[in-house]
Design brief:
- The chain has 369 residues and is mainly alpha-helical.
- The chain folds into 3 domains: 1-142, Arc Repressor Mutant, subunit A (Orthogonal Bundle), CATH 1.10.10; 148-231, no CATH class; 236-319, no CATH class.
- It is built from 16 helices and 4 strands.
- It has helices spanning 19-25, 31-46, 52-59, 63-75, 155-162, 165-178, 184-195, 201-213, 219-231, 237-257, 266-278, 283-296, 301-314, 323-336, 342-353, 359-368, and strands at 4-6, 79-83, 89-94, 134-138.
- It is elongated.
């Protein structure tokens, strides 16, 4: 088996074992599981490469026994095992340990956080089959599940990533698209696409092509597009092309109509999705709202357009032909509504000045009092 490299920032003179592991996880593990975890932890902190076959030889276990122990720790939430498309082990991650929960937890069972275990490898795939180069990292380099932020990858992790032949090909393709050598920051972005967003090489190729064709060669922009695709569940170039065609026509049509040449923010995209998906407006109605917005204000245009479309949605507008009747109704309503402010004060003053009072009668009434 190929070497599994473990990475951390600790030294090699000692191995640090978490008290949480000792208190909560150690008591329910058998000897083989403890040996394998402690050995992995020792090699992890010492930056020494290992493999499943190395561990099996050292402790006189079979490779199947080693994998069984690894899966036990994965089930307990201590490790996370990740497998590539060929079902080979490609990454092991040391997870953050959590304190035990004392409520209704049987003493005979290990205290494990809720985890999603990866499926077992098929019986037809031998556990001794060669695996791709594996990076094993700490939970501290990876954001919490559900976050879409790029981790702060170390130089060691970047070096391991760059050793793959497919990675070298990706770097070459990126340099061809961008017309310049890649910086370390650029390479970390590509590692982010592979490691965190789980993009295939083909999808990354199309991602770079898509952004460069639009004149965007900065990886900050490319990362935003990639995160948007990942959030939309895109996993193939074909899905990306379909999404891009729909996204470009709708989102950038609205952005242009509102006079915004920049890339849309997440909140702006959320507005557009609400108008077109949740409320079901066609582009003709949305663009009409944008036209009225531009005529009315040059600030907070998205929220202004949202107020227009919200009113139209409440009024049951479905077609542009519905708007003239709605506009006429609103004009009549305005005409019936009493005016306020200075014009109202002037009107009241004029009414007072035009009233006919009997001043003699008023004077006699006052004298009686």
């Amino acid at each position: 088996m190929s070497t599994i490299t473990l990475i951390d920032d600790g030294g090699a003179d000692s191995t640090v074992v978490s008290n949480l592991f000792i208190d909560n996880y150690m008591k329910d593990a058998n000897d083989a599981q403890l040996k394998i975890y402690l050995y992995l932890l020792r090699m992890f902190q010492a930056h020494i490469g290992v493999s499943v076959s190395d561990i099996a030889d050292r402790f006189n276990h079979t490779e199947k026994d080693v994998m069984r122990a690894l899966r036990y720790w994965e089930k307990c939430g201590v490790l996370t095992l990740e497998f590539g498309s060929d079902r080979d082990l490609c990454r092991i991650r040391f997870n953050e340990l959590v304190p035990a929960r004392t409520d209704a937890v049987p003493a005979s069972k290990p205290v494990c956080p809720e985890t999603v275990s990866l499926p077992e490898a098929p019986a037809s795939v031998p556990l001794s089959a060669p695996a791709a180069s594996v990076a094993v990292i700490s939970h501290q380099t990876v954001p919490a599940a559900g976050a879409w932020e790029k981790p702060a990858y170390t130089l060691d992790e970047l070096k391991i990533f760059g050793q793959s032949e497919s990675t070298a090909q990706l770097f070459f393709i990126a340099e061809q698209y961008l017309g310049r050598p890649l910086s370390e920051a650029d390479m970390r972005s590509i590692l982010f696409f592979v490691d965190r967003l789980h993009f295939s090489d083909d999808l990354i190729d199309y991602l770079l092509q898509y952004c460069v064709e639009r004149g965007k060669k900065e990886f900050r922009y490319i990362e935003k597009v990639a995160v948007g695709w990942a959030q939309s569940g895109i996993s193939t170039p074909e899905e990306a092309k379909e999404h891009a065609a729909r996204y470009d026509k709708t989102v950038y049509g609205v952005m242009n109509a509102l006079g915004k040449p920049n890339m849309p923010t997440q909140s702006e995209v959320a507005y557009i999705r609400r108008w077109t998906e949740s409320w079901g407006f066609g582009m003709d109605i949305v663009l009409e709202a944008c036209r009225r917005t531009v005529l009315a204000t040059d600030r907070n245009r998205f929220s202004y357009a949202d107020s227009i479309l919200s009113a139209w949605y409440a009024a049951g507008v479905h077609h542009l032909s519905d708007l003239p009747a709605l506009d006429a109704s609103r004009q009549k309503e305005k005409a019936r509504t009493p005016k306020s402010g200075r014009s109202s004060t002037i009107a009241e003053y004029n009414r007072f000045m035009h009233n006919n009072y009997d001043l003699d009668a008023l004077e006699k009434e006052l004298l009686k009092r």
